[in-house]
Amino acid sequence: PEAITVQELAKRMGERGADLVKALFKMGTPVTITETIDQDTAELLIEEFGHRINRVSEADVDIDTSTDVDPADTLKPRPPVVTIMGHVDHGKTSLLDAIRGASVQSGEAGGITQHIGAYQVQLPDKSKVTFLDTPGHEAFSEMRARGANVTDIVILVVAADDGLRPQTIEAINHTKAAGVPMIVAINKVDKPEAKPQKVREELLQHEIIVEDMGGDVQDVEVSATKKTGLDKLLEAIQLQAEILELKANPDRAAEGTVIEAKLDKGRGPLATVLVQRGTLRVGDVFVAGASSGKVRAMINDKGQQIKEAGPSFPVEVLGLSAVPSAGDPFTVVENEARAREVADYRKGVLDKKRTTAAPVSVENMFATHA
Ligand code: GTP
Ligand code: MG
């Protein structure tokens, strides 16, 4: 929009209108809360408050209410968030099972992953890694895009007996678009017809040069069924994570992203949330997309009730008023009135977007995080 009222901008930013008016006055722009300001002034103000501007398109900006500018001395190391991607049946879930030492794949209906599974694994050195599993089926393109978006590292699983396939290539494109480092896991090397070298050569055609070919993308040969190469893969993840120096402030109101959500017959609306900064606690009031609520209970990936979840933790949250959409921002706010206000506002924005905007594409999803 060309112009926005101070009131509306305050809502979008999750700040008090009066504080904006005060800041505007200091900037030499005396206005009242109902008056409009132009886009340049709005952008200055947003930056002034330490928020980030996400340029959705040349004409529209979306405001990330996350004050991502937590002071450096508040930041503490956090576990890496690792998303597993690849073509259908290339062994993503099996590989994750092998890493977790559990068996989820055999429990899935027909062995086809239908959703993003989120798990946390503790390594022998006590460090933790959060894994997101994604479905390889072509119908789940949006989930791959979403996965790439919330992740620090992508593990591209390629079956050595099958090579690069359409969803492998799609995953490569999402990863590149999100600017996320990649580790290639060449799976099923136990199979007699496995051709790991052919996989490396095919990757070259997509400008992915693995270490084995003199490039800087780590590649590891693994077998999920024979459980070989897993230590090397974990080492590769740790090495990549060290380079990224991942940190977040755990001592602030929690913010994260809804990675999946559904309506449960018995428990009502449920959302799996990846906490990205701050610590989420039972009793916290939050907004998730256009839905609001109060955390009634939190359940970890082992099915245990937990009281709090810090940065990089995936948790299932109970206590939502409605089912949010995957990809929605999840933000803890000070009270329920505020939560409803933000939710209502977002609802208005979402309704408007739904009727006027083009369908959500991968391109504009990424653009919101550029
Ligand atoms: P989607 O979630 O549907 O995209 O599949 P996925 O990538 O999660 O594959 P999944 O783990 O379900 O495995 C697909 C099939 O490949 C299963 O029958 C697995 O047993 C088999 N498989 C997975 N890893 C290996 C491996 O390392 N070696 C062999 N021989 N088979 C494997
Ligand atoms: Mg799977």
UniProtKB/TrEMBL annotation:
<feature type="binding site">
    <location>
        <begin position="187"/>
        <end position="190"/>
    </location>
    <ligand>
        <name>GTP</name>
    </ligand>
</feature>
<comment type="function">
    <text>One of the essential components for the initiation of protein synthesis. Protects formylmethionyl-tRNA from spontaneous hydrolysis and promotes its binding to the 30S ribosomal subunits. Also involved in the hydrolysis of GTP during the formation of the 70S ribosomal complex.</text>
</comment>
<comment type="similarity">
    <text>Belongs to the TRAFAC class translation factor GTPase superfamily. Classic translation factor GTPase family. IF-2 subfamily.</text>
</comment>
<feature type="binding site">
    <location>
        <begin position="86"/>
        <end position="93"/>
    </location>
    <ligand>
        <name>GTP</name>
    </ligand>
</feature>
<feature type="domain" description="Tr-type G">
    <location>
        <begin position="77"/>
        <end position="245"/>
    </location>
</feature>
<feature type="binding site">
    <location>
        <begin position="133"/>
        <end position="137"/>
    </location>
    <ligand>
        <name>GTP</name>
    </ligand>
</feature>
<protein>
    <recommendedName>
        <fullName>Translation initiation factor IF-2</fullName>
    </recommendedName>
</protein>
